[in-house]
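Per-record layout

source: Tsukamurella soli
name: Abi family protein
length: 266
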Amino acid sequence: MFEGTPRVAFTQHTSSARARHSRLLDRLSGERIAPYSRIATGHSRNTLALYHWNMQLAAGYLELLSVAEVVLRNALNEQLRDWCRDRSGTDVWLTSDDPLPFPLDKLFTSVREGAMARATDAKTVRDTTPTHDRCGVPLTEGDVLSQVTFGQWHNLFPYTQGQATDPTTNSYRAQMWSEALRDVFPAGVNPDDVRWLLYRLTYFRNRVAHHECIISAPLPPNRRHPLRSRLRDIFTLLRWLDPDVHEWTTGSNRVTALLAAGASVR
């Protein structure tokens, strides 16, 4: 009887753990959990371990992507502001009611209008909150800039690879590259490479931000795994934009260690 007691307790504990895992999986929903379950071949504990690892990876990547997004938009804003000043006499280009200079107007007018609308909505909320630090403060260039989404920048860059191009629109991009945007990047950087790197990171960022499954076989991720490729993309972009920011961000990078550690599966 004494010898059998631990086996009964162990069985009860195992049953209880399985029931808890089942409840957790139900709460996370079958459709969302399905990719993890496939990798774990249906093992509930390992499915949850993979989900948790995905959460950690997503948080780590989002830290790096947030730096990349802010530094990119600030660098592009500086060049576009100077370019607009040279052509219109003012460096107020995002909050201005005047049309954008050609050919930026062909590429960015609708983007500016959408960003201004979102910034105005945010200001309305601030102005109806008396305790807000910026209640009643006029819109700034920074307010509008922050409303230009990461996924809208890649469309400024000319390209010859990938999707079919509209020659006219691409000529506008090529002009903006030669007159302004090339100065954001080191000499010799190809605008094709910039465009498609930003395109890849936009897609990846959206998956991370919407809590999607970003892990896939083979595990652990090898050098050619998409997760490692996106990490290289982030650091390539930061190295292009500012070596000091690249070095600083590398020092706070958690993703490499998380990729090496893997999920706590049995």
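summary: Residues 1-10 have pLDDT under 50 and may be disordered. The first helix runs from residue 4 to 28.
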